[in-house]
Amino acid sequence: MNIRDLEYLVALSEHKHFRKAAEACFVSQPTLSGQIRKLEDELGVALLERTSRKVLFTDAGLSLVAQAQKVLLEVKVLTELASQQGESMSGPLHIGFIPTVGPYLLPHIIPQIKASFPELELFLHEAQTHQLVKQLEEGKLDCIILAAVEETEPFIELPLYHEPMILAVPEDHPWSSLDCLDMLELSGETVLMLGDGHCLRDQAMGFCFAAGATEDGSFKATSLETLRNMVAAGSGITLLPKLATPKERERDGVCYITAENPVPTRLITLAYRPGSPLKARYEKLSELIQQHIANILPAEKTL
User: Is residue 299 helix, strand or coil?
Assistant: First the structure.
């Protein structure tokens, strides 16, 4: 038994398909299948049910997968410990971002990170919050940047910045000429929202419901750009994160209005596993992001 065998086993449990698991491990399907069979022979127990067309694990197989995931995570920690306790800003770093942060934050910070830490090799992954949390727990990601939510409480969180949400309305909307709007004015209004799985949906809904607004149940967007286009088409109004809005007050049929009383805001954090030896690396990275975002959102509440 070796570490590579455990990686094959975990990959098979994730993909539930021999070919896909082999591709994920960059080996041929016969190689992966043969190593799984060898592992079974060595342990003297069946890990898979081979009478089914689907990849089904036995109870023993499921138990071994769970333990293999723990072993691989410890191996990752061991590797990190050997890397100068994370003090060096060099080598690979896998960072996860939620879709409502990544496309709008990355263009601002990637040039800064590359200039400040040229030896750092970044691998960027975009997924919804629950997926990022799972990947961080399993050691597939080193850290994640997302809006602080209950699911991230088990991790160490470094606050990066507070991001206000801006009200987006069609250019012919009665509010389109306003620079600022009291949130209580949303009472009785319906608001376009993202679909389930996006943490921004829950955060925006909280502010809208508190103001007396309701969700437009006939439509749920898959992205902020879909929301923006729906507003431009005159289909409704919505809240968008500040970094996702242009500098202009009006663009492409959408007017952007500052909301207040209260200002709808979310906290963006960098989260990592407790006990990670890369703590110093994450702190340097978060400090750089804080400083740069403070220049982009000078009038907003930053950290």
Answer: coil
Q: Parallel, antiparallel, or unpaired for β 254-260 and 156-170?
A: antiparallel
pLDDT in tens, 251-285: 999 999 999 999 999 999 999 998 888 888 999 99
Sign of CA dihedral 78, 80, 83, 84: negative
Q: Quote the tokens at residue 67.
A: 């333990």
Q: What is the token pair recorded at 203? A: 């955060």
Look at residues 154, 160, 155, 192 and name the one whose alpha carbon lies nearest to residue 173: 192
Q: Say if residues 72 and 7 touch (Cβ distance below 8 Å).
A: yes
Kindly tell me the sign of the dihedral angle through the C-alpha atoms of 127, 131, 133, 135: negative
In what helix (H) or strand (E) does residue 129 lie, and over which residues does it extend? helix 129-137
The model scores a pTM over 0.90: no
User: Rounded to an integer, what distance in angstroms lies between the CA atom of residue 160 and that of residue 227?
Assistant: 25
HSE-up of residue 248 (Cα within 13 Å, Cβ side): 7
- Cα dihedral: 174, 180, 185, 191 (round 10): 70
From CA 193, how far away is CA 202, in angstroms rounded?
A: 9
Q: Identify the sign of the CA torsion 18, 3, 129, 170.
A: negative
